[in-house]
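Lesson 9: reading folded outputs for more than one chain in a single document. The general rule is that every protein is listed as its sequence immediately followed by its structure tokens, and records are never interleaved. Here is the first one.
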Amino acid sequence: MNNSNLFYEALNALTNNGCPLDLARSAASIVANDDPFQPDLGRTPQQQQIIQEALPYLQSGIYDQFQTIDETPNPLTHGQFLGNFGGELPDETIWRLAEGDSTALNDITSYATLDRASSIFTRLEELGAWD
């Protein structure tokens, strides 16, 4: 697993929103092993189907317009922020962060959550995710 923190956060977000445990484990494992340098984040068609089945458990509001995370403007950043903060932060804040809006960090009131979000934001910025 490339990112165990992302695995546990995605698993938590999915199960907190009613996703069956086996599906949540599978989806979290896929997201934790995403490769931003590969087409479709390196996901097989079977993995994409699992993500498509799990995604409705994370959708509310702004993400409802997408069938999969791959349809968002930036799947890598949306996947990272939604996987880490889905169910913890409002979707609008997650969306703004995933679109590279650093001012969205100001909306986070929990110090621990802000620290994690800032760290992820900085790493994605260093990777050139929004270039």
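And here is the second record, again sequence then tokens.
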Amino acid sequence: MKYRIWIVLFGMLFQTSSQAQWLGSEEPVASGSPGPFACVPAHRDGRNPYALALLSGIQTTLIPGTSYQRMEECTQAMDALRNTPLSPLLCTSRDRDGRGPWILGMIQNGRHVRFDRAVSTSLGSCIKMSQDLILSDDGKSGIYCSSKNGSGLGPYAIMGVDLETGTVQIGGSFFSELSKCNRNLGILP
């Protein structure tokens, strides 16, 4: 059983120079950020739920706060990981039960730092929020649209996030639909 898990783990990744890169991804893990990553059983029993883990040689270290009910969800979130100059952005289960709703956050110091109110009703919409997040020129902050009250449902607001601390601020304009909020940011559907 242990050998099969390691084969799966190493089959997900490949190394390029001193940085890891996801299969099918164009972006290397940000310099100064942890990596490479893999999806592993959270309880180390070969069954669900799954969590994201940091790989170091043959050692795996689970990243607290990451939880997925199925391996496919963990892999989908890992494949959609967005690198920023400071920390990778990642979606995971808000309630840490491996199920929706989903919350966007960053991996910092070996753990998942959640962005307050960056909640989506589906993993796909959380990943889209991560992809749509507009970074500042220095990469230390960003803006995105999300549920005003953190439910994943309307009304929606423009949020600002400090990518050094994970602190979120809510803008003063509210929208009945997420698409209207995104259009206000210049993001087209």
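What the second record shows: The chain has one domain: 2-184.
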